[in-house]
Amino acid sequence: MVSTNYAPEHTGIGPYSTQIAEHLAASGADTHVLAGMPHYPAWRVGEGYAGRWRMCEVRAGVTIHRRRHTVPPRQTALRRALFEASILAHGVLAPPRVRPDVVLTQMPSLAGGVLGDRLARRARVPHVVIVQDLMGAAAEQSGIQGGGRVAALAGGLEGRVLRRADVVGVVHESFVDRVTAMGVPRERVHVVPNWAHVKGPSGDRALTRERLGWSARDTVVLHAGNMGLKQGLDVLVEAARLAEQEGARVRIVLMGDGNQRERLQQLAAGVPALSFLPPADADEFPEVLAAADVLVVTQKASVLDMSLPSKLTSYFMTGRPVIASVAAEGGTAKEVLRSGAGSVVAPEDPKALLAEIRSFADDPEGATRLGAHGPRYAERHLSSRAGLDRITALLGLAQRPAGVDRS
Question: Quick check: 391 pLDDT over 60?
């Protein structure tokens, strides 16, 4: 497997890569992972890994080959390009000394896709790619500084990797048209949704709220996860500011880390209705989510078909209602509405967001009924067993006929 993100990262793509690799190892496969140094979502190299150039470690029967790369604390197109280039260069210079039977790549990163393609072609084995985010579209839609100039280049390289892959998995059907437009035959594209990789809450909700200092009289709105550009989290700061002005008993909490956290903290200065929490550990995470009254996912209005927030699967497990401040035509909106566990409001519109929050606060029983759809949806469609079985089946499809050379 090639995946820049891997355990001990416990948010984003890392948990999915980890669970897939550990599932394959438990099934008897000699499983190796070419990974980067843990850095997400803080965009700082994790303790115990800083200063390491290369290392090999074994976790749950999986051999992880880690290679050092740059970790930009602030995202621009140039810094992202350097990040990708460093991953690619180190992976090319020091590939794992393993001859694989199949290569499975998680994208992003774009460099990981190129490395996976290179490893598969050198070993003359099938290459399976799982698309978590579309990098070309991300550069175009996320608002990253300089992104428009590199979108075509990133999209072109991404398309080349996907066209040469034997099988392409996408985590949502909204990605299918974008991938086939790159020239990937439809029959090689398969939808493999992510699954709920965290357990449901089991603690006392009232005690968790008390520990966090959340008043029972306040409607607590929680955003958990990465604080990056594409999330467009300014809308939550402005919604909190409006709540203060209107005297609404609304408290908005941002839990997590990311390259926009410091800027958001500066923007929120003097807004007591908004507060920040550090990332929660794996055991505490579902308890904090369940202690909130409303869970919120936000995206910039320009984000349509380039990513699906991994936090949604965790949100659905808690039984709390979800508000999605996202483009109505995007995959995130479709997933929230399909679950029946939440509602969708216009993106980057703090007035609309606050109005929806207040409507949930005014009808707590209705909000609870709405949120109760989440665990049922997760049980039917997002179980880890079903998700891992889909990945195993995807690998089974990667049987390249003799003599086939995709270029």
Answer: yes
Q: What mean pLDDT is predicted for residues 133-138? A: 70
Residue 3 lies in a domain: no
Helices (H), 283-330: 285-291, 311-318
Outline where DSSP puts E strands in 167-284.
167-170, 189-191, 219-224, 250-255, 274-277
Measured distance CA(281)–CA(75) in Å, rounded: 25
327 with 213, same domain: the answer is yes
pLDDT band at 399 (very low <50, low <70, confident <90, very high): confident
E-assigned strand segments in 311-397: 322-325, 342-345
- The tokens for 352 are 């609309």
- The one-letter code for the residue type at 78 is L
Name every residue whose Cβ is closer than 8 Å to that of residue 301 and which is 6 or more positions away in sequence: 232, 327, 346, 347, 348
Domain limits for position 328: 205-381
DSSP conformation letters of 19-46:
HHHHHHHHTT---EEEE----TTTTSPP
Domain membership of residue 402 (yes or no) is no
Which of the pair, 197 or 350, is modelled with greater confidence? 350
- For the stretch 218-269, pLDDT in tens is 999 999 998 988 889 999 999 999 999 999 999 999 999 988 999 999 999 9
Task: Report the alpha-carbon distance of residue 297 to residue 311 in Å, rounded.
Answer: 8
Place of tokens 């594409």: 230
pLDDT digits (tens, 9 = 90+) for 51-86: 999 999 999 999 999 999 999 887 777 888 899 999
| Range 251-280 burial, b when 16+ CB lie within 10 A, else e | bbbbbbbbbbbeebeebbeebebbbeeebb
Q: Are 280 and 303 in contact (CB under 8 A)?
A: no
Pair (233, 115) in one structural domain: no
Q: What is the pTM of this model?
A: 0.82
How far apart, in whole angstroms, are the C-alpha atoms of residue 37 and residue 52?
8
Bond preceding residue 279 cis, omega within 30 of 0: no
